[in-house]
Amino acid sequence: MGDSLTIKPVLANGPTAKLSGPPDNGQKETVPPINNQAAIIPLLERSGVPTSAYVPSPDTTSDFLLVSDSGKVFTMPVFPNGKEISGIKGNYTIIERVGIGGVGEVYKAKNNDTGEFAAVKVVSLENRHNPVVVARFLKEIEITNRLQHPGIIRIIDLEKTDGKNDQEHPPCFLVMPYIEGGSLEQELKKNHKINPIDVVKIAIGISDALDHAHRQRPSILHRDIKPGNIMLDDKGNPILVDFNIGSIEDASTINPTGQELPKTYHYMSPEQARGIGKEQLPPATDLFSLGSTMFHLVTGEYPFTGDKPGIVSTRIQDPFDYPKLPHEINPEVPLELSVLIMDIMAKDYQDREDMFPQGALSVKQRLCWILSDMEKDKSTSVAA
Predict the structure, then answer these.
(1) Is 205 in a helix, a strand, or coil?
(2) CATH code 1.10.510.10 region(s) in the chain
(3) What is the pLDDT of residues 24-80, one digit of tens each?
(4) Is the domain defined by 184-383 classed in CATH 3.30.1130.10?
(5) How many CA atoms lie within 13 A of 239 on its CB side?
(6) Which fold would CATH assign to domain 84-177?
(7) Are 209 and 222 in contact (CB under 8 A)?
(8) Between the CA of residue 333 and those of 190, 192, 300, what are the distances in Å?
(9) Opening angle at CA 147, ends 145 and 151, nearest 5
């Protein structure tokens, strides 16, 4: 039969349930319950047991951990595959979990009425009663609904609740269009870096989206521009996700030991690294993160590296510490694009504001000029 997998309630009292599963590593050891800090490991890959089998009862309001006899600890998905959920505008069937983050999980689902795929973002069980997380989730809904732009993800539905969808009766999930192309982070994992002309096209779309957000009154900043928050649709158009939610201060708690570097640190601005309050951050903060993202996309390397968050933070703040020019790392990067990226990454945000007086719109304009030159050069080389 092999090792068994045991479901242990963490916040609820009740009998444990035994599930059969493949052997783990053969070691037998006793592991105490780990309160809400389980390592995230894909359940289906590890156990071979259908996801639905992990739900011990219809009550999924409590936290459960899956523990193998060998001591491996797993998280349970909020929604099992095949579960039907009700939104205000429609009903959805969960297909599979496709992402896990600090706030919750993302699932691929199918609209039962239209047959179209959708992405369902749900607050994780351990965060349901965390007022800070709930407030940010509601803020994401509010901000995303204010931003109507083709380059910014839309919310198309919310959980159907008996309350008013406020802090007292918050929805636990929101529904967005499912983007088939995946994220730029996934592209980097597959291809290491991205063709510079494609990066310019992507950056034009993102700078246009940022211009729209920054022109709101009051201005809306993203504060977490990075490859993982830029999705590509089936036509290659970039779409910005997670507006105003994934803040830098959250990243510092991901791994307090500093042994594994949170990816967000590589793209944060010097003013974020200095700890300036998010309400005081200027729109130029997003420009720096866009520049850092472009640097990574065209070179395949982070602009600032270090084995601990503090080292990266110090390097980002240091006014004399600049990375190599992108074209020195990747000769395919045109000089004018290389210079633009470094301009966007000026350490002093006032220098960014001086070089780009209209903010993201000025960045977009320079990118369009560069794209025009790159396409001319491409046409000339093909003709030759």
Answers:
(1) helix
(2) 184-383
(3) 333 322 333 333 333 323 333 344 434 333 333 233 333 444 444 444 444 567 888
(4) no
(5) 25
(6) Phosphorylase Kinase; domain 1 (3.30.200)
(7) no
(8) 20, 15, 12
(9) 120
Which residue is listed with tokens 């993982």?
A: 228
**Count of other CB atoms within 10 angstroms of residue 145:** 12
Give 175's strand partners: 120, 157
pLDDT class of 269 with cuts at 50, 70, 90 = very high
- Cα–Cα distance list, 203 to 157, 291, 339 (Å): 28, 9, 15
CA–CA gap between residue 306 and residue 312 (Å, rounded)? 5
CB 347 within 8 A of CB 319: yes
pTM of the model: 0.77
Mean pLDDT confidence for 323-333? 98
Placement of tokens 């095949």 in the chain: 82
Cis peptide before 218 (omega within 30 of 0): yes
pLDDT at 79: 85
Structure tokens at 339: 């210079």
Give the C-alpha distances (Å, rounded to integers) separating 188 from 45, 195, 343, 363: 23, 11, 23, 23
For residue 278, what are the CA distances in angstroms to 32, 193, 338?
38, 31, 29
Q: What are phi and psi of 98, to 5 degrees?
A: -120, -10
Dist. CA 290–CA 343, nearest whole Å: 11
